[in-house]
Amino acid sequence: MNSHFEELQSIVRRLRVECPWDREQTHTSLRQGFIEETYESIEAIDAGDWNELCTELGDVMLHIVLQAAIAEEQHEFTMADVLTRISEKLRRRHPHVFGDAETPDTASQVRTWEKIKRSEGRTSIVDGVPKEMPALLRARRLQEKASKVGFDWNDRSLVWKKVAEETAELHEAVESGDQRHAEEEFGDLLFALVNYSRFLKIDPEQSLRETCTKFVKRFQYIEQRLREQGKDIDVTSLEEMDELWNEAKTKPGF
Asked: Which of 193, 190, 252 minimizes the C-alpha distance to 221?
């Protein structure tokens, strides 16, 4: 195992010297690729394609090793520092495994985890939720963190009432013609819907992802049927496309 990891590090260090593209990369230039490789790993998990996941995890690992190599060259930190810090963090945040603490269930373990994180220098319960996370996922995590200290609804019906309230406020903002206010109320409605998803035990990010996949399949069905009919989608009426959409909905898997 160590030899394989060391081999990857050796390859990356050589690329940083001999490959013009690799040599030009910085922490920032690799940022978008790092995100994309992570999402490709998630896609493989969602598809249950473990062979593809193995490949994608390798791509993620490449980014980690490359980021560490760049840091090492600039005397910022080394891969050893990265591994040491995560090992220390895992031991520190699992006192029930590496210490004498008692955590009888998952809920108490999560509370202990949050307390330890605050003791590490975080001043707010909602610190540590990255701003760059997808907004639906970030909203969910912020709500979960607030819920852990009792800042939460205690009845699902009250959450739905909030959704209805935000829907009405969005409608009023749209009718007023105030675009900025409409944008704000739209965000409030999405936030309320994400909150409701917690009470339904639905992952909003996954739910929307599946809806996007369904949309793509049905829209591509429309394109396919129009091609079969020798028609140009650019001059096809909405009514005709909507008819094909409804036809797609009757097909298995659509």
From this structure: 252
Quote the crossing angle between the two packed helices 156-176 and 179-200, to the nearest 10°. Answer: 160
| Both structure tokens of 176 | 């007023």
d(CA 166, CA 179): 16
Confidence at residue 130, expressed as pLDDT on a 0 to 100 scale: 87
Find all residues with CB under 8 Å of 184, minimum gap 6, and list them.
Answer: 173
For residues 181 and 186, give the distance between their C-alpha atoms in angstroms, rounded to a whole number.
9
Q: What is the pLDDT of residue 117?
A: 75
Model pLDDT, residue 61: 97
Q: Are 67 and 27 in contact (CB under 8 A)?
A: yes
Alpha-carbon span 243 to 175, nearest angstrom:
31
Could you report the per-residue pLDDT of 232-244, keeping only the tens digit for each?
999 999 999 999 9
